[in-house]
Design brief:
This protein is of the alpha+beta class and about 350 residues long. It contains eleven helices and eleven strands. Helices cover about 40% and strands about 20% of the residues. Strands 1, 5, 6, 7, 8, 9, 10 and 11 form an eight-stranded mixed β-sheet that branches.
């Protein structure tokens, strides 16, 4: 019968010779399992005299601990060696070009802005931009918006601390860029202004951050007929309906006089919405002749110059053109949504090729 010392030497030698985790597991079972060699020795302790049993039991417990510890150490060493081997085989050369595992998609907002800018680009408009954080004068006062106008209320507008106690505001429209352009540039002016805007609202058709595109023309001869012709051609080009019905309804905006809402023809027959000839109308943008007070605020003589302005929501026209039912999905960063509604690069070109913003 093997003594504990003989068994220790044999088992430790076997542990050292094991060349795989599977071999180590078999060794553990053969030594420490229910029918293992150490277990069998411990079963014989009951037949020994008390003093002899105590000494033998202590020796077997020490043996069991040594063998178990040796197996764990060997297993950890094998795991480290396996990891090193795998890391060496899977090493990456970071100087190589990135693998294109996923095709990128143009977001519908970016695509729609490109299309809008492209159409007006062919009409001679140039792109102008301005800051998202504005002061009260550029965002409200210069645009002839009265102090008691609802747009100035805190429940509708995001205000921020400013210098000298004067609050800043996240612009509620892109119209401040019109003010900055008229202040800094001599007429004639013909600009299109795409950009982010902010209002305190959130539901299926409103977002606290959204995009607008505004247009401005200032010269000595432009009139309401030019405004109508410009917007009719835009609507028909954007929605790709050559004879799209377009109508202008009288409205009110503080910064234009006269003002008009622009509607396009549509139908909802059979529960299906379709843009084009039909028995219904859908409002898509606002417009009008620039209010003389706005021209005066910007240092432009209203007796010599006049012009028109218009603005539309990018998300709204994108939803209409591409059948997107909920505005909130534009900003939820769901790749499945982008794969469905997104555009492959240059898949749907604008009317002016190679636009770069």
């Amino acid at each position: 019968m093997e003594t504990p010392d003989q068994l220790r030497d044999a088992l430790l030698k076997d542990v050292e010779a094991a060349n795989s985790t599977e071999a180590l597991e078999e060794l553990r079972i053969s030594a420490l399992g229910k029918k293992g060699r150490i277990t069998e020795l411990m079963k014989g302790l009951g037949q020994m005299a008390p003093e002899e049993r105590k000494a033998a039991g202590q020796a077997l417990n020490v043996l069991k601990g040594e063998v178990s510890s040796a197996i764990d150490v060997k297993k950890a060493a094998m795991a480290d060696a396996d990891l090193d081997k795998r890391l060496m085989s899977e090493q990456i050369d970071v100087t190589l070009p990135a693998a294109h595992e996923e095709t990128g998609y143009v977001h519908p907002i970016s695509q729609t802005i490109d299309e809008i800018v492209g159409i007006f680009g062919e009409m001679g408009f140039t792109v102008a931009e301005g800051p998202d954080i504005e002061d009260d004068w550029h965002n409200f006062t210069a645009l002839n918006i009265p102090l008691d106008h609802p747009a100035r209320q805190e429940h509708d507008t995001f205000y921020m601390p400013g210098e000298d106690g004067k609050r800043k505001v996240l612009r509620t429209h892109t119209s401040p860029v019109q003010i900055r352009t008229m202040t800094d540039q001599e007429p004639p002016i013909r600009i299109i202004v795409p950009g982010r805007t902010y209002r305190s609202d959130y539901d299926a058709t409103h977002s606290p951050m959204f995009h607008q595109v505004e247009g401005l023309v200032i010269d000595k001869t432009s009139h309401m007929g030019h405004l109508k012709g410009c917007l009719i051609e835009f609507c028909r080009a954007f929605f790709e309906v050559d004879d799209l019905p377009v109508r202008f309804r009288p409205s009110y905006f503080p910064f234009t006089e006269p003002s008009a809402e622009v509607d396009i023809g549509c139908t909802r027959e059979g529960g299906e919405f379709k843009i084009g000839h039909g028995d219904d109308w859908l409002e898509i943008l606002g417009s009008g002749m620039v209010n003389p007070n706005v021209l005066s605020n910007c240092g432009i003589d209203p007796n010599e110059y006049q012009g028109f302005a218009f603005g539309l929501g990018v998300e709204r026209v994108a939803m209409l053109k591409y059948g997107i039912p909920d505005l909130r999905t534009f900003f939820e960063s769901d790749l499945r949504w982008l794969r469905h509604y997104g555009f492959r690069s240059l898949e749907v070109p604008g009317m002016v090729g190679g636009l770069v913003r």
